[in-house]
């Protein structure tokens, strides 16, 4: 087990978990601000799952973690390396049936606490499309603060790309000062 919260258990994905990822990524509404389309089964098996497993190998204390509540799989939380070894990037992707329960905020707050208290990180970041208001609300509720809007080039941009991407972050001092209360 990677970590537990009041209602969630987070643990590593295994090589047989393609079906769970497909269950998540085959919903175009879940993928709306990521790729804008359902991920096909072969891509889950040949790209999505292997990439998740590869991060565990390269970064044993980081990665994308399967989240379960009392009834089973609800989605995942990610805590990923960045170019700066003392900064991690957090993210989340939940099945639609798990939205509206506070799970994303609960898991993200736990990952931020884990980053500072267990992993010794100095900064936690999160990013999303500016138009992904549900995700931005999770960032705000988790104690991350808005830093900037930035623009990236995409060959096949999603609707809303023109409004850019947003970066939220919190540093250790700010978090310790109580933003996590
Ligand atoms: C982004 C995403 C995780 C947000 O999920 P969410 O359910 O809106 O966020 P939370 O888990 O924090 O839940 C908050 C909601 O639960 C409600 N809630 C119900 N019970 C609650 C409880 N016990 N505690 C806290 N909130 C609770 C809140 O009132 C809030 O409702 P609202 O959206 O009507 O204001 C989800 O929309 C998702 O997976 N999207 C697809 C993937 C994605 O876009 N990821 C981000 C890309 S970077």
| Uncertain segments | none
Architecture, CATH level 2? 3-Layer(aba) Sandwich
CA-based shape:
globular
Task: Please tally the β strands and state the result.
Answer: 8
How many helices in DSSP terms? Answer: 5
Question: What percentage of the residues does DSSP assign to strands (E)?
Answer: 25-35%
- Radius of gyration over C-alpha positions, nearest whole angstrom: 16 Å
Termini, distance in Å? 25 Å
Q: What ligands can be seen in this structure?
A: coenzyme A
What do we call the CATH topology? Answer: Aminopeptidase
CATH class term: Alpha Beta
For the biggest sheet, the summary is: 8 strands, mixed
Strand order of the largest sheet: 1-2-3-4-5-6-8-7
Structural class, by secondary structure, is alpha+beta
- The CATH superfamily appears as Gcn5-related N-acetyltransferase (GNAT)
Helix content: 25-40%
User: What is the residue-mean pLDDT, rounded to a whole number?
Assistant: 95
The structural domain count equals: 1
What does this structure look like?
The structure is a single chain. By secondary structure, the protein is an alpha+beta fold. The protein has helices spanning 18-25, 41-58, 103-117, 133-141, 172-179; strands at residues 3-4, 9-12, 63-69, 72-81, 87-94, 123-129, 145-150, 165-171. The protein has one domain: Aminopeptidase. It has five helices and eight strands. Strands 1-2-3-4-5-6-8-7 form an eight-stranded mixed sheet, sandwiched between helices. Helix 1 crosses helix 2. It starts with a strand and ends with a helix. The model has no long low-confidence stretch (mean pLDDT 95).
């Amino acid at each position: 087990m990677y970590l537990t919260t009041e209602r969630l258990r987070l643990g590593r994905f295994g090589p047989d978990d393609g079906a769970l990822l497909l269950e998540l990524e085959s919903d175009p509404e879940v993928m709306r601000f990521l790729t804008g389309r359902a991920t096909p089964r072969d891509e889950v098996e040949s790209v999505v799952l292997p990439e998740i497993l590869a991060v565990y190998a390269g970064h044993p204390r980081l990665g994308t973690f399967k989240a379960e509540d009392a009834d089973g799989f609800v989605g995942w939380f990610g805590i990923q390396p960045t170019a700066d070894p003392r900064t991690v990037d957090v993210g989340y992707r939940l099945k639609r049936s798990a939205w509206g329960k506070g799970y994303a905020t609960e898991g993200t707050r736990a990952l931020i606490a884990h980053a500072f208290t267990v992993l010794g990180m100095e900064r936690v970041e999160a990013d999303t499309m500016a138009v992904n208001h549900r995700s931005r609300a999770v960032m705000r509720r988790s104690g991350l603060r808005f830093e900037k809007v930035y623009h990236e080039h995409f060959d096949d941009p999603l609707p809303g790309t023109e409004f850019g991407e947003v970066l939220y972050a919190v540093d250790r001092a700010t978090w310790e000062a109580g933003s996590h209360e």
